[in-house]
Protein: Protein mab-21-like 2
Organism: Balearica regulorum gibbericeps
Amino acid sequence: MIAAQAKLVYQLNKYYTERCQARKAAIAKTIREVCKVVSDVLKEVEVQEPRFISSLSEIAARVVLYLNQMGVFNFVDDGSLPGCAVLKLSDGRKRSMSLWVEFITASGYLSARKIRSRFQTLVAQAVDKCSYRDVVKMIADTSEVKLRIRERYVVQITPAFKCTGIWPRSAAQWPMPHIPWPGPNRVAEVKAEGFNLLSKECYSLTGKQSSAESDAWVLQFGEAENRLLMGGCRNKCLSVLKTLRDRHLELPGQPLNNYHMKTLLLYECEKHPRETDWDEACLGDRLNGILLQLISCLQCRRCPHYFLPNLDLFQGKPHSALESAAKQTWRLAREILTNPKSLDKL
């Protein structure tokens, strides 16, 4: 048994060096290339509209643009829109004091949709003026701000607010009292790290278009999640999962993305709370555990968000796509488990 485990870990480390590192390098190169163009466009946006200050942050192949000054708004997250929250003026008399006065609705909410719509107009103008105008085009027919660069890459630019020093009520159940991971110090760090509010279409809102919903902001915990995954072979495990997904689970209907992999890795950390469970020698066991959990989620057609369990990350995915992903994941897991050398070809 130990020999089989060691063989799998050896093959996984080889896979990590040959496949995952190559994937990382290619992505890093693409990001460098794309960020030059996006920075140029955003500088032009800032000239037209200084409230959109270009502080680039790359989150899962999207570019996040942090907005300035949220001060006069209260963060309201009552669970009525899973995965979302609203920003409401703390006092109606402060409307004129807000930097974002024309994006505030009659009922006092800062509208994510209105800000995105204005930003989209600014980006369209900036694309025409920037020095890369020959290689960058705005993608029409979407309320998101998307650019096509050199006919090869599509970049989504998302306006966002960074929220530190508060933690959403809809994530209040985390961490579960009976689960020893991640421990009080790490929990304090993660909560201090805070979260982002993104102006983008939300999982739970697609198909619905009431104004209250389109004014809502999407909660995003990228930095908090990254902090939780520090230490042991966690990040190596994530890298292997992402590479396997990119190469073998890019399926019609797009049932799986890399965020599903990251979410299941966080749940695996709870199931295996000791640091020794994440030694290099355990990489094979952890990977198998996550692939089996993924099959189970696909078969049940439900994958709860790690911090917001009421938000189902499979919502809106076609059942047939989830089914074929379950079959393909099972084939992949069986192949890796019964014949570690197959990783040479995967």
Summary: Residues 56 and 244 are 28 Å apart (CA to CA). The mean pLDDT is 90.
